[in-house]
Amino acid sequence: MVESAVVLRCPECGSKRLYRDGLRYVQEGYVQEGPVQRFLCRDCGYRFSDPSKSFKECQTSGERQVCAVLQDAKNLNTVEETKTLAGDLKDAPKWTIQFLWSLKKDGICDNSAKMYWYYLTNLESRGASLSDPESVKAVIADQKWDPNTKASAVTAYGKYLEVFGGTWKKPRYKREHKVPYLPTSKELDTLIGGANKRLAAFLTLLRQTGMRAGEAFRLEWRDIDAERNMITLNKTEKHGTPRNFTVTPELIAMLNNIPKTEKKVIFTGTLTNFSKTFRAYRSRLALKLQNPRLRDIHFHTFRHYYATELYTKTKSIKHVQERLGHKSITTTEIYTHLVDFEYQGSYYTALAKTPEEAQKLLESGFRYECDFGEVKVFMKPKGAL
Q: Going by C-beta distance under 8 Å and a sequence separation of 6 or more, which residues neighbour residue 31?
């Protein structure tokens, strides 16, 4: 939280709840040259600079920064960055640098590294000695965690032992596969309608593309083709396949309404802080509307909704797998068990392999929906002439 004699406010929402969020380097010829302190609004997620103070002034004015764990912007590209990153963490364990750098060299993605680090430090804070596997097993068994959380803690400690050469007889916790929570279309519209322009554009992007939050967060302006209403996803997560999405002109307009001050479209801070902003907004709206179901909606919920809606329309699990970028169709099959939409069964679907077949379908009232491998999918409402 920023503490200073002159209270800064977010120019977007007026909030005083701010984080320091890195530096912006000002070129020669401006009123102030050199690095300028950036700030991040905790309420709306807006990122801005305070033109009245330089970085040195902020450092000596008693202001402090709440450090983010494993900032996304650094990405652990080098050993030096890893050391700087670990140095920013208050009371970071001594093993942190070696552990994180080893994961980076093994090709473990940053999100997984964050999760491993989180579980290991959590276990230490609960009294586990990472050098003693039996101590770790006892602490995990003593927690009132669900089996999925305990299984994740076991996986994280297994990675720790791989890095430092230890062995253990790991406990067995069977993961429970639950049906994802699926809100109504009206509830998603309510969340989007009450959000600020950045958050509303981000949620709409998730709803229309089914991207993972991390994928959408890393989109750059060069990935958006406004003329063809198309968005290209090249920076995928979990080794997914790159893909194109055709979106509505309304979404393109929402994205273009965001100031183009950075390479990234939505935000240049961290996804962790952006998620905190969303959760705070979601809780306020749930309380205001007296709808506790809104609190159960997460960024990933929009992906579940997209997949279920797409499967309901096309009845093609293979097509849903391609649109979601899943490596295994087993992961995609869960969406065949979710609730049906009100329009399920009210469409005819047809496939066309040649231009002639496509022409006949269009003349018969079908409309083009999407590509499925080497064929094109067409749909027509039942009862349509």
A: 51
